[in-house]
Amino acid sequence: MTASANPSPAVIRVTELKKQYKVGAETIHALDGVTLDIRAREYVAIMGASGSGKSTLMNILGCLDRPSSGMYELDGQAVSTLSAAAMARVRNQRIGFVFQSFELLPRFSALKNVELPLIYSDVPWRSRRKMAREAVDRVSLTDRARHRPNQLSGGQRQRVAIARALVCRPTILLADEPTGNLDTVTSAEILRLFSQLHEQGQTIVIVTHEPDVAAHANRIIRMRDGKVLSDLPVEQDNAVASHREAALRVQKGAP
Amino acid sequence: MRLFLHPISLLRLLLQSAWLALDQIWANKMRSILTTIGIIIGVASATAVIAALTGLRLYVLESFESIGTNKIFIVPERPQTGKLKNSNGWLLRFHPEEFSGLLEHCPSVANFTRSMGQRLDVSYKDKTESGVSITGIDPQWHQIENRFVTQGRPFSLIDGQQARPVCLINPKVRDKLALPTNCVGETIMVGEARFTIMGLIEEHPQTGMFGSGDSELEVFIPFTSAWRMNNGFIVGIAASRSPSVSEDARAELTFFLRKQRHIKPGEPSTFRLEIIEQYLTQFNNMATMITLVAAGIVAISLVVGGIGIMNIMLVSVSERTREIGLRKAVGARPGAILLQFLVEAVILCLFGGLIGIAIGETLTYGLTKLPNGGLAKASIPFIAIVASFFFSAAIGVASGMFPAIKAARLDPIEALRHE
Lengths: 255, 419
Fold this sequence. Notes:
By secondary structure, chain A is α/β, with parallel strands linked by helices. Chain A contains 8 helices and 10 strands. Chain A has helices at about 55-60, 85-95, 110-120, 125-140, 155-165, 185-200, 210-215, 235-255, and strands at about 10-25, 25-40, 45, 70-75, 75-80, 95-100, 170-175, 205-210, 220-225, 225-235. In chain A, the strands form 2 sheets. In chain A, strands 6-7-8-3-9-10 form a 6-stranded mixed β-sheet, with helices on both faces. A 4-stranded antiparallel β-sheet of chain A has the order 2-1-4-5, with helices on one face. Chain B folds into 2 domains: about 5-65 and about 280-415, no CATH class; about 80-270, no CATH class. Chain B has a 6-stranded mixed beta barrel with strand order 2-3-8-5-7-6. In chain B, helix 9 (about 275-320) runs parallel beside helix 12. Chain B starts with 6 loop residues before the first helix and ends with a helix.
């Protein structure tokens, strides 16, 4: 099931996206003309070394940051020029965030943490608990809902964070190094959960530098120096990557 | 910064913010209490001072009323200027006949009595009391002082005209001298003279400020009898028809007495008139001043308290930077963050205010139990409680605004990166 085999409307359309930072007298081009579409039901991994611009792209896709120039359309709506309050609403309703360090509120139970985005939505009081429970069920944490984060394992904490990201039924789920703080076994468990959500029809964009993690996606975008280096379905990317590695080995082996 | 779209969602967010704030305050109990101490002390002292002033005002008013606000005291006084400046004050004292015809010439004066006090030993059989207050009075004294004879009869005109050795005593004298319950007709020794008791006079009403609480031993004799014993220092006591005409009465009395004393126009008077109302005005001015000074001190302590709150809110914003970042990332509008911290500051101040009011009430209760009883009626007026409450809330808004704006303006990416 690849993007080309199942043509569905683009939920994210990014055109000539640029982002510059001024650090002292120097201007850093974190994004230098990125253009890409992400369609509904895709599972995309964005890869790149640190400084490649993948986190900047993630922040802009997540409406946490604005591009210096270029266009970002989410569900056909230009969102990068919205007011701060309208941006907050977009984050609340259409984007689910999963962070590397979970970012759970320590004094709240898992269920309360999951309920947090609903506080800032228009969902009436009575429906909130029900929606939070549904989200907790989706990540199979029903029996841990009453526990506080410090009573949960790392994997369980990340599940709570994923439930929180899903609770408002977002258009896209954005995950920034979601397995970065987890051991191999727990990582596999979380990645299985992502695949499961993807099968249920959730659009997912995941940022990672680990090939094992990216391998779970069905499309891999590689970035370098603020530009898209390659944008291929996972099978082709694997071929190109192994080819590239071979080439690197040859280079190293032939001084 | 547009806050919210809908009043219902605003109300919902307010409730949520209040709930969050309570949770936060509970999580930092010790810090919250220490932070609000400034507010607590400010409100407690404000309410206690207001209560004390309220009590004092009531007490003073009652004291003056027990003397009678329509009373005018006439006392001789050596003038500050003129040829009598260096005269012997004793020579300026009143003579009994100087007041004759006073009521006819002063239409605003309802009653008038001469009064002359001295202290003498009083004895009955083998009992002796020394330093008893002996006051010579005219029959109208009862109306002016509002103290009447409860047993026997008051002095008659004849008693006065003939300067008879008759007296009225208060129950305390009867008890101290072990006189029979019905003491009318008994004879007691006043100084070196024998006096027959004509009746029992009412106990002096609780005078508060001007009496020592406990009533004195009092013996009253006709003014003429007192004058015969001792040509002493006479004080005239006039009662105006009502407090509102006391200024007229004063003018009439001045005119009458200057004529009696043959004082020429332009020369200073050799007597002084004292109206209780004057003291009341003076007291009110003083009370207002005390209130202002107290208000100033309280305002300073509340400002200091507010700075404390602001400081702790800044600490709170800084501590919770990541939380703020997360809340923003999951869709909290800047207004929602602003409200959360503002509500927390207000609730903190309201707690301080409530504890302050409670301590103020306790202090007030303590004031009412003070031994000399001057503040027995101290109480915090309801309006002061309401004002303290709103004032605390206002301090919360004022001191929470800056930290709240700081929180609302945090960049979510920066905030989430914060360690």
